[in-house]
Amino acid sequence: MADLLALDPADLWRPPLHQIDENTRLSHLDALGRTSLFRHAADKLAADPDPRSRLFVEMVDRALHAHVHEREPLGRALGTQPPAGLSARWAALQAERDRLLHTARASRPEWRTASAARAAQLIDAAWQRYAATVWPQAREDRDTAPAVEPQASFWRLCRLEAGGGPKAVGSERIRQILQLADGPMDRPEQLPLL
Predict the structure, then answer these.
(1) What's the structural domain count of the chain?
(2) Which of 18, 52, 115, 160 has the fewest Cβ atoms surrounding its Cβ within 10 A?
């Protein structure tokens, strides 16, 4: 058996050309064939000047090296399945929750112009009312979100939570989410004039 430490991960993941052709389907590829697709994409992107391409190539190189030499599961080596913390799925769900809260905030002038702390209190109160009174019936009757905001965002937030997504719990958490966009201080229109 070949010494794994002597293997070059860049070459290890390149199967012979005859194994993959225009008739090959993803379902026909084994683990080596599927993993070779990462190497192929990295090779194609290596000459691309876009910084994202450079980062992708570096990520694939490091992940394949960790997978071969350190027996790191490939998903963990790629950073899509961390041993603890934020998975790619959870990060996407949180980003959607945050986007919905920002959309709700933008829908009302009094929320839009308020500080993050005040807007969070107002949004949380409206969100709690919606979740307690409207959502139980809307959950049964609707397959699509209402047309108007903030009800549309609240409906989507309820669906997100019902599907196991992150919760929009409490005005303090909402304030933190809004403050990331506003910055650490109140909005300029909220600052007292000297």
Answers:
(1) 2
(2) 18
Residue ranges making up the domain that contains 123: 88-189
Cα separation, 112 vs 102, in Å, equals 9
* Co-location of 66 and 113 in the same domain: no
* 110 and 35 within one domain: no
Block residue for tokens 């026909």: 28
In degrees to the nearest 10, what's the CA dihedral of 65, 92, 117, 145?
A: 180
Tens digit of each residue's pLDDT (9 = 90 or more) over 22-58: 777 878 777 777 778 888 888 889 899 999 999 988 9
What tokens were used for 105? Answer: 């905030």
Largest CA distance in the chain: 77
Mark whether 56 and 117 lie in a shared domain.
Answer: no
pLDDT tens-digit series, residues 90-134: 888 888 999 999 999 999 999 999 999 999 999 999 999 999 999
Q: What is the dihedral of CA 146, 152, 157, 163, to 10 degrees?
A: 30
